[in-house]
Design goal:
mainly alpha, 2 strands, 8% strand
Length: 100
Amino acid sequence: MGKDALAAYLKAQCRGRKNAVSGAGLERALQTGGNELRRQVNRLRRQGVPIASSRNGYFYAVTAGEIYETIRQLRRMERGLAAAVQGLEASLNRFGGDAD
């Protein structure tokens, strides 16, 4: 599955939050795996394609509000990842400078 196929599918079949499809549903429809799906979603978003997501799955955004909510969700994830990195960095003190 290429990113263009994903974008076309979402634009045609999943326009707006009310038509969101789960990751598992997309995997089945596009015959791909979860990791590849997330990579393609990321690539499309980086290119400015309005792929949004909610608890119900992925969809092609049709309003600015849908994009803003996805941005808020991604920023929460970003903060969670930053906190995990900080915790791991703090744990390095227990290893006394031994890299292995």
